[in-house]
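Worked Example 4.2. Consider the chain below.
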Amino acid sequence: MQIVTTTTDAAYLARQVAGDRAQVSALIGGNIDPHYAQARPDYIVRLNRADVFVQVGLELESGWVPPLLRSARNRDIMPGGRGYCDASVGIHVLEKPEQTISRSMGHLHPFGSPHYWTDPLNASIMARNIRDALIRVDPDGIEIYNRNYANLHESLKQLTLELTRNYAQLRGLQVAVYHKEFTYFTHRFGMESAVSIEEKPGVVPSAAYLEEVVRTMQSRNIRLILISPYNNPRYAEQVAERTGARIVVMPLSTGSDPHVQTYPDTLRVMLQRIQAALAEKNQQTYFVTPLQKSTPT
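Applying the procedure from the previous section yields the following C-alpha cells:
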C-alpha cells in the first residue's frame, strides 16, 4: 500500500500507524512552507499511484493540492474517496475569524489556524484520522492499525505530560512570532504568542506597524521572537535590533533540522531552544541560524 502525505509530520504519524503494511512518503520537506509549496510533475505520478492521501487540511494546502489531485485522476484519494484523509477532522481549531474574510485581510484562513500539529494531542487526532483511512482501504489490517494507533496515542499522551512537566518554568512566557503558526504550540505549553511581526498573514508589515510591534515588545518585556526556517528573517531582524530580543529559529516540522528526525524530536527541540535562548547571556541576535531547505521524506 502506498501512502502519500503533504507534510513530513503527517508522514511520520502515518508510518507509526501503518507499520510495515505500507510505504509512506511526504510531498514536501520539513523546511518548505506548506502554504506555498511548488507543485512538481512527479507529485502527480505519486498521487496517481497512491492508495491513501493525507493532508493537514483547514486550507493549509489549498493553493497547490487541489490541482494536483485533479491531475492525478485517482478517484480513491479525492475528497470523499475511501483513501482520502483530512487529518484536521476533530481538531479543536484556534483563531477562527469572527468577521467576514476579504482579500484585504491577507492570507487569513477562513476556518481558523491550520498549524495544529504542533500540539501533540492534536497529533494523536491526526493519527486517528489516518488509522480510519487505512482501515477503509485495507480492512484486513484493522487489528494492526488499531494496535499501532493505541500505542502511538499513549506515547503522545506521555510525551505531553513529560514536556509539560519538564518545561513548566515556561508557563506564562510571552513571545513574539513572525507568522501566527505557533499558537497551538504555545497554548499547549502555557505560553502566549503575544504579538505577530506580520501585520496580516502573508503580507509584508508596514513601517508604522513595526513601530507598534516594537512598542508592544518593549512595554511587555518580550525577549524572544520565534520564526520558522522558511520565514523571511528580515523584519524579525529589524525588530530584534530595536528591542534587543533574540530570534529563535523553530523547527516546526519533522526533518526541518538535523536534530529533528521524528515528531517528538520537533517538540523537544523547540522547547529546548526557547529555554536555552532565555538563559543565554551573550547578545547574539540569532540563537539558531536559519537552515537550508530539506528534501521530502
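The longest strand covers residues 192-196. Residues 2-161 form a domain with the Rossmann fold fold (CATH 3.40.50.1980). Compare this with Example 4.1 before moving on.
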